[in-house]
Amino acid sequence: MYIDWAHRYLPRCFAVCSFIINPLFIYMILKDTNMNMGNYKYLVLYFSIFNMSCSLCDLFVPVGIYNYQYAGYLSGTNVNQRLRYVQDSFMRYYGQDPMELNIVIAQYWDASPDLIRDTWIGIGLLSIVSFASLLIIVLFGFLIVSELRNQILFLSANTRRQQTQLTIALVIQTITPTVACFLPCFFSWYQPMFGINVGQWLQNTSSIVMSMFPVIDPLSTIFVLPTFRRQVKNVLFRTAKSKTNSATTPSRATRTNATCF
Predict the structure, then answer these.
(1) Can you tell me whether residue 118 is helix, strand or coil?
(2) What are the distances in angstroms from CA 89 to CA 68, 95, 114, 198, 239?
(3) What distance in Å separates the CA atoms of residue 99 and residue 161, rounded to the nearest whole number?
């Protein structure tokens, strides 16, 4: 279903970038033997694989968010009563009949008690799972920082510096999914619950922001950890140097041939 050019092409561009950046990130992690990352290495590898799986979903199942009065939808199974509720507005905005699409609609008001009850139960369970995930992230982050503070007197200066850098990277990796994934979901769930209408541009932007997560996540770690930054600089420097050498070599050969002649 076509919404606009940004919604169609930007997630695909981010998916392609994800399949380029994440494998390079995995290569840098496995190649770098100077930095002792410990078990954090395996956590970052899992993040990279998860990022590429998210990008794969963006390619095959693009996410679209649409809110109308007291209802919002993603994709999924068909419920005729809810589809009729958004049918006129949906056709005006997208030019397509929702009765011909497979979608999931969460309707909070203006429906039968059974549909409203199912909506509140479903959104309630999703909210519990989401808040539990955030709570676990914050809790384990706090435990990690506390453990590092307890062991700081027994660590060398180099190890303390590395642990501080890894902690900063972990904090950024916690903030990134919160902003790029959880907030758009909460926004799409709760906006129609309170009858708030802020315009379709913000709803379309939410799905685009979600597709940026697999790209931002590895880049944030690369820019925070100096050892990864140096690897990127070395690669870029070698690439630029090789291009310079290939450009200057023919001119030198030409001068030599002219002198010999």
Answers:
(1) helix
(2) 7, 9, 23, 15, 53
(3) 58
pTM: 0.67
What's 182's DSSP letter? Answer: I
Question: What are the tens digits of pLDDT across the range 163-182?
Answer: 777 778 778 877 887 777 77
C-alpha span between 201 and 213 (Å, rounded): 19
Q: How distant, in Å, are the alpha carbons of 21, 28, 29, 34, 46 from that of 24?
A: 5, 6, 9, 18, 14
Domain ranges in the chain?
A: 5-229
Q: Are 44 and 24 in contact (CB under 8 A)?
A: no
Give the DSSP letter of residue 97.
Answer: -
Cβ-Cβ contacts under 8 Å for 137 (sequence gap 6 or more): 174, 178
> Which uninterrupted H or E stretch holds 9?
helix 5-31
Contacts of 36 (CB under 8 A, 6+ apart): 159, 162
Strands (E), the chain: 66-68, 71-73, 105-107
Tell me how far apart the alpha carbons of residues 49 and 78 are, in angstroms, rounded to a whole number: 32
Q: Give the whole-angstrom CA distance, residue 165 versus residue 170.
A: 9
pLDDT of residue 260: 32
Q: Count of CB atoms within 10 A of residue 90's CB?
A: 20
Round to the nearest angstrom and report the end-to-end CA distance of the chain: 68
What is the C-alpha separation between 113 and 98, in angstroms, rounded? 22
Q: Indicate the angle between helix axes 113-151 and 157-177, nearest 10 degrees.
A: 170
The angle at the Cα of 129, spanning 123 to 130, to the nearest 5 degrees, equals: 85
Spatial neighbors of 160 by CB under 8 A, at least 6 apart, are 152
d(CA 167, CA 159): 12
